Amino acid sequence: MEALVLEKKGELALRDIEMPETPGPGEVKIATHTVGICGSDVHYYTHGKIGHFVVNAPMVLGHEASGTVVAVGEGVTGLAPGDRVCMEPGIPDATSRASKLGLYNVDPSVRFWATPPIHGCLAPEVVHPAAFTYKLPDAVSFAEGAMVEPFAIGMQAAVKARITPGDLAVVLGAGPIGMMVALAALAGGCARVLVADMAKPKLDIIGQYDGIETIHIGTTDPAEAVAQATDGWGADLVFECSGAAPAVLSVGKLARPGGAVVLVGMPVDPVPVDIVALQAKELRVETVFRYANVYDRAIALMASGKVDLKPLISATLDFADSVAAFDRAAEGRETDVKLQIRMP
After folding, report:
1. How many structural domains are present in the chain?
2. Looking at the domain assignment, is residue 293 inside a domain?
3. What band does 51 get if pLDDT is binned at 50, 70 and 90?
4. Residue 160 lies in domain
5. One domain for residues 207 and 275
6. pLDDT digits (tens, 9 = 90+) for 71-82
7. Handedness of CA 11, 14, 18, 20 (dihedral sign)
8. What is the DSSP letter of 81?
9. Which of 74, 135, 320, 342 is the right S-S partner for 25, CB 3.0 to 4.6 Å?
10. 100 and 74 in a common domain
């Protein structure tokens, strides 16, 4: 079937490629409707690798998706042709120690869409395990369904933070994931969330939400802004979502004594950490890698209206224009948050 294929670093093509077409036991076949472009997709396109994951063979991109079930395999219950769904893209080994502990996101053998050598979902149809396929409520559109995947990272961060109702949080980085974390923190009980970034257009977008205040790093020192907002006490929670070395180094200054730091952003190279600054306040440090056991809760929050991700969808392009869509994503326009591709 025709798919968007990353042939090698810097080269994309819409062409036929062999992919599974018949659902096996416990699987469903889905007609893909909407696929979001993730930063990791773009990074594979522009760099050909992320860490030790290297594109050594043609690979179909895409892992943020929604669609409609068109066929079910043997033993599938709870899903039927015609169901509108979104798909969790990481498939773990159910027998692994990590999975048995509920930590399937860190299962070393997890097969994750569009992570070499596993094909992604930028194709008209995909076959996927029913256990990782979720019905979309009527109130959640296909476009929103394709936003569940990035929002799940925000949910994972909120869970790891152990939010207490009324907390004040700081989010460093107003990229798509930083925005998802900020909204998940609000939904999780934070009274206020301060979001800091250099890109004013992105701050303007996330600043439209009630409960979110913005800090433009170009004009305001985040440490001073947090001190002013907390009478010098510090933030209950600090979410580092940029992966930038200066931001990582600053987290100890922003948190209150006994507060928590959640590391979400992934630096390209190792970065320094001020361990004494963390120790002096006895800060709890948590890390996030993808997500586990949060998809259903993410969908429920969206269906309830408590989380509205529609303002973060910057543009939707046709499948035929997929290469142009990726080129636009690679530009990194400050006014773009999430670009999506609508399948034929």
Report:
1. 2
2. no
3. confident
4. 152-287
5. yes
6. 999 999 999 999
7. positive
8. T
9. 74
10. yes
